[in-house]
Amino acid sequence: MEEGPYKYIREGNGKVSRVIRIGTRKSQLARIQTDSVADKLKELYPDVHLEIVAMSTTGDKILDTALSKIGEKSLFTKELENALERNEVDLVVHSLKDLPTTLPPGFTIGAVLKRENPYDAVVLHPNNAGKTLETLPAKSMIGTSSLRRAAQLKKRFPHLEFKDIRGNLNTRLKKLDEKQDFAAIILAAAGLKRMGWENRVSMILEPEDCMYAVGQGALAVEVRASDADILEMVSVLHDPDTVLRCIAERAFLKQLEGGCSVPVAVHTQVKDSHLYLTGAVYSLDGSDSLKETMQTSIVAGDQSLEKVDEQVQRVGVTASKIPGDVQDRAEQLGVDLATLLLSKGAKDILTVARQLNDAR
Question: What pLDDT shows up at residue 69?
Answer without folding.
Answer: 45
